[in-house]
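Per-record layout

source: Evansella tamaricis
name: Glycoside hydrolase family 38 central domain-containing protein
length: 811
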Amino acid sequence: MKKMYMIGNAHLDPVWLWQWQEGFQETKATFRSALDRLNEYDNFIYTSSSAAFYEWIEKNDPEMFEEIKEKIQEGRWIICGGWWIQPDCNIPGGESFARQGLIGQSYFKEKFGVKAKVGYNVDSFGHHGMLPQILQKSGMDSYIFMRPNPEEKGLPGRLFLWESADGSRVKAFRIPFEYCTFDHLENHIMHCKTELKNSFDHLMCFYGVGNHGGGPTKVNIETIKELNEKLLDTSLLFSSPNEFFEDVSKIEDQLPVVHEDLQHHASGCYSVHSEVKKLNRYSENLIIQAEKFSAIANSRTGQFYPTDFNQAWKGILFNQFHDILAGTSIEAAYHDARDLYGEAISISSRNLNYALQSMSWKINIEEEKDMKPIVVFNPHSWSVKARVEIEYGLFVNYLLPAEFIIEDVNGNEIPHQIIQSNAKVPNRKRVVFVGEVPPLGYSTFKLRAFPSKEKFDIVKTTNYSLENDKLKLEINPDTGGIRSLFDKINNIEVFKGDAAIPAVINDPSDAWGHGKLRFDDLIGEFAPVTIKKVEEGPVKGTIRIISKYGASNLVQDISMYKELNKVEVKVKVNWQEKYKALKIKFPVKFNQRKATYEIPYGHIAREANGEEEPMQNWVDLTGTIDKETKEIYGLSVLNDGKYSADVTGNTISLTVLRSPIYAHHIPFEPDLEDDYPIIDQGIQTFTYELLPHKGSWEGARTVQHALELNQKPQMVVETYHQGKLPQQDSFISIDQSNIILAALKKAEDNDDLIVRLYESTNQETDVTVKLPMWNRSVNLHFGRSEIRTIRVPQNADEEIYETNLIEEPLK
């Protein structure tokens, strides 16, 4: 007999065409219905995911929570998808996926004594290629998804082994046709039956009222029982994903292997609703920094380690639900999302400030008249040249000296520059400098009231050009684009044609971008209104380009630093267009090009075919300059809040925004003359950087540069005082540059230290990690693109050992 495993479930979107309060109520109603069906039918089994829903029930209906616990203990209520929520599976950062599992599985284990064995994202709009490793290391060896559909992504069958770059594999199953049913279950079952031959005669068939919850009905259950009596060659089993994957594990060695990400569905979701995506990136990076320095401060100064980090993470993770972070919910849902991000950001900011100031206050800084100490903290595991800006002075009090210098911790004068202040009051000044700060540490700089004895070269700046020792950039006054970016050291021109021109794309598609693989219907470009030099000095030069299209305007402040071999562009766009998208284009002068995109805790090479692709902090295009010498050169485009790009031939296009109607879903056809709420209207800001590089992006340390943009050094303007801490310190040493510190935190169950690292360039690596403050070190071997987590016991007599992502010891 062929087996069809009938999976009773209720796909429940806590937010979509409704706000979370409605999703909250529907969760209770759905779970009540599931409990009733379990009480009425002895052989019925119910499957559910998302720890966030259970916490709602626990806090709002404790009696129902106890009923659910009983059914879980009976083995009839099955927990799948051990994550906090079913998130978008492209846009969250790597550490967010780790925390989905850590917080979700910890909740299920604590409350119910179980952990999910099966990953479960039935409605997410695509699945990045590092998920098999993340799932395996979160306690799940199998995965269920539905999108992309067969017409969007060809796969060898419904059932296969999915492999990530490190070699981790999970058994994966693509749901046939739909994850929920209404009044047509018999037709759905017969439709699924046709797929059995492509799934080794084992197939899951999902049923139950869904999207707005509901779950299996009495009619559903009776239909299954009646149809099971009629079918002669197929057995319909009330079952669970756990049982299905246990059974197919017997034929695991026969399953085909898929080694790539699972795309594309709803490509417009990578870029629509810029605000929620920027808040996601900012909050993720802020809380990671706050955890790092809180752990250090706890050990270094005795500052308490906060107990509310998980509350902040829960808010971030909830907002990563696929219909929130993807930008496809109603407008009111995004007011709620902003509130939740606000809570997470407030918690993280407060805890970060506690940690930093607990350390800066205890640094031993000698008393000196007219000296202002500036303590700069580096959150990264490598030394950085930190771009530091301080604003100081208030009317007649606390004035900056007429003449001053800035010295590093060794007493060396370093260049500084007065730039435009944020406050428009007399005597308020803003100073910028670039200073070296050691790995995961701090350094103390001093503003001293002495005239400078040094003569520093400046970044040569005109209205149309910027030049430092390595790069020269020229602006085309007619287009406002970058006409040339010339590498003076290697004698190479980066661009072929004007770059950084904002291009307007006709985009009448819905919020998802259903059916769209490319956004390339170019209908216009922003034209320059003014181009002028706004900054010039020994630290940096800046050209401001103000351009206009229709009712919209856009400002690009293009800056070149004396000591940095990359170009920074701060963008402010006031977008007033409807049914259009905005891209910024960078045509490069390379041959035999390879396009690489960062994905969560990894990267992937994709075709330069113009299709819209998801990315994290960077996209790179590398090729050959000379056909004879085959000299390798490339350009990485880094960003601090964008997730979508395409590479078409020799052109990288960064997708800035899209402006469809909120929650517009085909086949609804809007009246384009009517008034609808439009996404991405108004003022937005973001930063991108251009990192030209000879050789590969790996050699250029693109990953590190992008992280520096997203996790900026932190600063405390201090006073002089006695203390036990030195004026410079470092708290980690990693002797291989491709090994990245992802997270440093206290363990979930005690005061042990958790250190998460990942290999970033797809090469096997032996590394020594030293933690001098804890007087500990460890030698590790990393496979290609491997994520590893180590636990450093508080007791120095206990050995360091490795855990998985949910902090369980590995054998």
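summary: The mean pLDDT is 96. The chain is about 20% helix and 35% strand.
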